[in-house]
Amino acid sequence: MSRRAPTQFPFGHLTADAGASADPVLVEIVQGSLASVEMEVETAIGRTSRSPMIRDAHDFRAGIHDRLLRKLTGRSYSALVHPVARDFPIEEMREGDVFFHNDVYRSEGGIGHLPDLCVTVPVFSGGKVVAFVQAFGHHDDIGGAVPGSMPSNATSVFEEGLMVPPIRLWDAGVPNRAALSIMTRNSRMPESLAADLDAECSACLMGARRLGELFDRYGTDTVESCFDAIISRTTETYRREILSQIPVGSWVWEDYAEHDGVDEPMLHTQRITLTRTPSDDPDGERLVLDFDGTSPQAKGPINHCGDYSDGVFLKKWLAPILRNLADSPERMAELDVNEGIVPLIEMRFPEPGTLLTPVFPAPTNARTFVILRLLGVLAGVVAKAVDGRMPADQETIRYTGVYGEDLEGRPYLMREVLGGGSGGRYYADGEDTIHVVPDSRNLPTEFTEARFPFRVESLSLAMDSGGAGQFRGGLGYEKHIRMLKDGHFMSIADRSILACWGVKGGHAGKPFEVTIDPGGPNEREVDALADAEPIKAGEVVRIRTTGGGGWGNPLDRDPALVVRDVVWRKVSPEAALADYGVVLTGDLDDDSLSYDEAATRAERQGRPEPSEAFFDRGPGYARLADGAAYAEVDLV
Question: Where is the signal peptide (predicted)?
Fold first, then answer.
C-alpha cells in the first residue's frame, strides 16, 4: 500500500504570474549571480576549513534557496531549509543568525547521516528574510561508537554520534559558545570540527551579504520575479525535453543493497514502479515514482529517511538521472536541477518501517547504499521504458580509511572517498574513476604521506574492472598503501558482491575489493563493512573500486577499440579474447599489437547468444538469489 508523504511546505510561487513578466536579460544576470555566490561560498569553505574530508576531498555542498524554501541553483544537490523554517518562524529571524542541524529524523529528509553537518543563514533585504544560503558537508567525526562516526554494525542511531536538531548556532552575529563546546567535546577531532564549522558559518554569512547586495541593486519584487522565472523555466524545459522522451505507461524494476553490517548478506530490495502520466491526466503530466515493494528497514545502518516533505529531497536527488534523456551530452550538461523539477515528480512511499521509511531510532550512517542504489534503480526502470537509451550502472560511493597513532604518538584519522567507473552509454564508453559527489576527489598523495604514517605506493586504474560491452564501462581505482606503523583499516562500502549492472547485453563491472598484504604471508580479504581491521607496519592495503557496467553486446564492439584498450592497459589481453572475442596479434611491448580479423570474426560467430535478460547483474547475484541468473523484473 503506497501513500503520499505530507508536507508543511507545498510548492508555490513568489509572484502572481510565476515570473512570466520578468525581463529575460535580468533573469540571466540573476541566475549567473546566484551561481557566482554559490561558488564563492564553496571556494571560501574549501580554502578555510581544516579537515581532509572538507578541505581536500571536497565532500560538501552549498545551496541557495528563496523564502519559499525552493532551491534556486542547480549545479549540485543540497540539504533543505525546511527543518529550520519549521522550528524557527521566518519572521523572527535576525541578521547574523546562523542555524545548525544534523539530526537525520528532524531534517525533513535533507540530512542522511549524522556526520553531515548543515548550517543555514537567512538573507535580509529591507529588514525581511528574502532568501537563504546553506552549506552542509561530511565531517571527520561527530562522536559515536567508532572513529569517523559510521559504525558498520550499528543497530540504533544513538550509536552513530551526537544528534542536534535545528538550533540557532549564531544569534544575531554572536556565536553560541556553549553549543559549539558540546559538539567539539563529543568529537575525536575537535580542532578540525571547530575550524570546519567556523569556515562554513563564515562562508554562508559572506554569501548572505552578497545576495543582499543583489536585492539592494534591483529591488525585492524584481529579483523574486526572476527567481520564479528561473524555477518555471526549469519546469517547462524538463517537461518539453525530458518527459517527452518517455512514453505514457508503467514499468517496474528493482536493485539491491547486499549487506547491512548486522545480518548476513542478502538482497535488500529497492523497487520503483515508474508511471508516465498523459498530458490530460487530472493531476498533470508527470512521473510517478512508487516505492512499494521496497524491503523492510534493515537492522544495520543502511536505512534512509526519504518520506518527509513529500519526498522533496529525493526528487532533487534523483532528477539528474533524467538528464540522460537529453538530445545530446552537451545539452545534458546544460540542464540544471533546481526546485523546478518538483512539480513534475510525484513520490509514493510504502508504510513506515521500510528502507526508505525507517522508524526512529533506526541507524542510517551507511544510507548511501540505498540512495545511491536508487539512482541506478531509476536509471534501470527508465531504460526499460526507452529501449535502453540510458547508461548502465555507475560507480557507488564508499569510504575507506585508516586510523591509529602517527609516528609521534598523536591520534589520527584518514578517511577517503574513492570514486569508481561510470556506466557505458548507448553512444560512448563510461568514464573512469568518477565521483558521484560533485567536485569531490581522492586525497592528494603528497598531503596524505606528509600527514599520516603510510606511503602511497601506487594509484592507477583497475584493469578489467569496467564491464564489457559494445560501449565499455568506466574503470575504478586501484590504490596500494603501505603502513609505516600499526593501525586499523575501516571500510563502509557496498557492491562487494553485487556489481554495477550492465544493460542491453552489456556485462556487469567488477565489484569492490580490499586485500591486505596481497601476495604476502598474511594475505586476507577485508569485509566491505569493517570498523577496525588491524594492519601491521609494513603491510600493504590494496583497494580496488567498482567498475561501471557495460552497454550493449561486447561482441559488437569495434575490435580496434579493444586493441586500443589493451595498449592503454584498461583491458588485459586475456579479457580481450574472453569478453570481446578479439584474437590479438603482435606484441604489446613493441607497438605491434593488432588483431586477426578473420580469426576474430570466427571466434565471435562461435559464441552463444546473449542472455534474454535486459540487465546483467554479475555472478554475485546468484549467490544471494538462490542460484538465479536474473530477477523477473530484468526481462522486458
Answer: none
d(CA 201, CA 369): 30
Contacts of 100 (CB under 8 A, 6+ apart): 117, 118, 119, 120, 164, 166, 167, 168, 169, 179, 197
- Cα(64)–Cα(477) distance, rounded to whole angstroms? 34
Q: Is 90 exceeded by the pLDDT of residue 281?
A: yes
Q: What are the pLDDT digits (tens) for 103-123?
A: 999 999 999 999 999 999 999
CA 392 to each of CA 123, 269, 281, 370, 620: distance values in angstroms, whole numbers, following the listed order: 42, 19, 31, 18, 17
384-396 per-position pLDDT tens digit: 999 999 999 997 7
The mean pLDDT value of the chain amounts to 95
Answer yes or no: is pLDDT of 547 > 70.
yes
Pairing state between β 584-585 and 594-595: antiparallel
Counting runs of H as helices and runs of E as strands, what totals does the chain give? 14, 23
Q: Percent of the chain at pLDDT above 90? A: 92
- Express each pLDDT in 135-167 by its tens digit: 999 999 999 999 999 999 999 999 999 999 999
The CA R_g of the chain, rounded to the nearest whole Å, is: 25
pLDDT for 170 equals 98
Cβ–Cβ < 8 Å for 551, 469: yes
Closest to 75 measured CA to CA, from 112, 38, 109, 30: 38
DSSP H/E element including 27: helix 24-48
Distance from C-alpha of 543 to C-alpha of 525, rounded to nearest angstrom: 10
Residue recorded with cell 590494496? 542
Question: Does the structure show a pLDDT above 70 at 515?
Answer: yes
Q: Which residues have CB under 8 Å from 492's CB, separation 6+?
A: 150, 152, 365, 366, 368, 398, 399, 400, 529
Closest C-alpha to 306, from 296, 293, 315 = 315
Beta carbons of 418 and 543 less than 8 angstroms apart: yes
Q: How many CB atoms are located within 10 Å of the residue 632 CB?
A: 9
Q: Cell 525530458, residue? A: 242
Of 448, 327, 331, 330, residue with least CA distance to 57: 448
Calculated CA dihedral for residues 88, 94, 97, 99, nearest 10 degrees = 10
Residues 423 and 549: beta-carbon distance below 8 Å:
yes
Q: What is residue 81's three-state secondary structure?
A: coil
Distance, in Å, from the CA atom of 46 to the CA atom of 384, rounded to the nearest integer, reads 41
Task: Take residue 198 and report the three cell numbers written for it.
Answer: 567556523
Cα separation, 384 vs 311, whole angstroms? 24
Task: Determine the Cα–Cα distance for residues 193 and 147; give it in Å rounded to an integer.
Answer: 13
Q: How far apart are CA 558 and CA 409, in angstroms?
A: 56
Q: Please check whether residue 430 is in contact with residue 471, taking contact to mean a CB–CB distance below 8 angstroms.
A: yes
Q: What pLDDT does 2 receive?
A: 78
Give the type of residue at 393.
Answer: D
Q: Which of 399, 411, 492 is nearest to 451 (CA)?
A: 411
pLDDT bucket at 75, cuts 50 / 70 / 90: confident
* 350: three-class secondary structure by DSSP: coil
The rounded distance, in Å, linking the Cα atoms of 604 and 262 is 45
Name every residue whose Cβ is closer than 8 Å to that of residue 624 and which is 6 or more positions away in sequence: 256, 258, 265, 266, 267, 497, 498
**Res. 6: pLDDT tops 70:** no
Are 573 and 544 spatial neighbours (Cβ–Cβ below 8 Å)?
Answer: no
pLDDT digits (tens, 9 = 90+) for 332-384: 999 999 999 999 999 999 999 999 999 999 999 999 999 999 999 999 999 99
pLDDT tens digits along 427-444: 999 999 998 877 788 899
